[in-house]
């Protein structure tokens, strides 16, 4: 299998959201996805419940159907006031970055159905309704595994992106994939090989602007 031989710090700081650079024409060996998911299962799980499930979609018709739902949800998001390209309009430098993100999100909306592999991380709760109040325990036992999958995929030469917009129409996607009513979707991760080789840490706020020691 292909490994990048990256250090832990490199994997953690260069696992970027890959949208425009996803290689839509190159097949993905399912063994790479399985390896990445095996690593994902080592993530923390509250009470060791391990109620995570992963739906891996390779069937062309199902990928296209999920892609149509995602595209519809994404276009709705892009038209709204909270879309990436409309944030930080008062900061010229940051606005440039936001517009690039906006455009890449729009691109992914139009090609999601063509991405070779789609992975949906889910939580099985035994109930058709999510718990009321604080859900950090529930999602804190699933989403770290999804992020671990993305990190492991990066090490194996695969690009991914964290997407949740399809959850506007979660039931439609559940019907396409036969997901039971007591299984709740958390994130949709497009997975493919990528073009180019340059991945680097993204610009972020200085740590001291968000760091609070002992009190706010």
Automatic annotation (TrEMBL):
> Which UniProt keywords are given for this protein, alphabetically ordered?
Oxidoreductase
Q: Which SUPFAM superfamilies match?
A: FMN-dependent nitroreductase-like
- In Gene Ontology terms, what is one molecular function of this protein? oxidoreductase activity
What does UniProt give as the signal peptide span?
A: none
Asked if Coiled coil is a keyword of the record, the answer is no
Keyword check for Aminoacyl-tRNA synthetase: no
Residues annotated as domain Nitroreductase? 14-183
Matching entries from Gene3D superfamilies are given as: NADH Oxidase (3.40.109.10)
Q: Which domain of life is it from?
A: Bacteria
**Xref: CDD domains:** Nitro_FMN_reductase (cd02062)
Q: Which family does it belong to?
A: Belongs to the nitroreductase family.
Q: What is this protein called?
A: Nitroreductase
What is the species listed in this Swiss-Prot or TrEMBL entry? Answer: Allokutzneria albata
């Amino acid at each position: 299998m292909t490994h990048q031989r990256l250090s832990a710090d490199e994997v953690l700081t260069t696992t970027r959201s890959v949208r425009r650079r996803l290689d839509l024409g190159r097949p993905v060996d399912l063994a790479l996805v399985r390896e990445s998911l095996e690593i994902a299962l080592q993530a923390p799980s509250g009470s060791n419940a391990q109620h995570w499930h992963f739906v891996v979609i390779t069937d062309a018709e199902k990928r296209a159907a999920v892609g149509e739902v995602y595209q519809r949800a994404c276009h709705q998001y892009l038209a709204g006031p909270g879309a990436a390209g409309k944030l930080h309009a008062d900061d010229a430098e940051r606005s440039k970055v936001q517009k690039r993100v906006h455009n890449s999100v729009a691109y992914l909306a139009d090609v999601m159905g063509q991405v070779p592999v789609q992975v949906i991380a889910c939580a099985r709760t035994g109930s058709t309704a999510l718990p009321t109040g604080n859900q950090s325990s529930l999602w804190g036992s699933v989403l770290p595994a999804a992020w671990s999958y993305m990190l492991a995929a990066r090490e194996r030469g695969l690009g991914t992106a964290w997407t949740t917009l399809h959850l506007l129409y979660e039931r439609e996607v559940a019907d396409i994939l036969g997901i039971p009513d007591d299984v709740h979707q958390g994130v949709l991760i497009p997975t493919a090989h990528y073009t180019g080789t340059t991945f680097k840490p993204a610009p972020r706020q200085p740590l001291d602007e968000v760091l609070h020691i002992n009190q706010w």
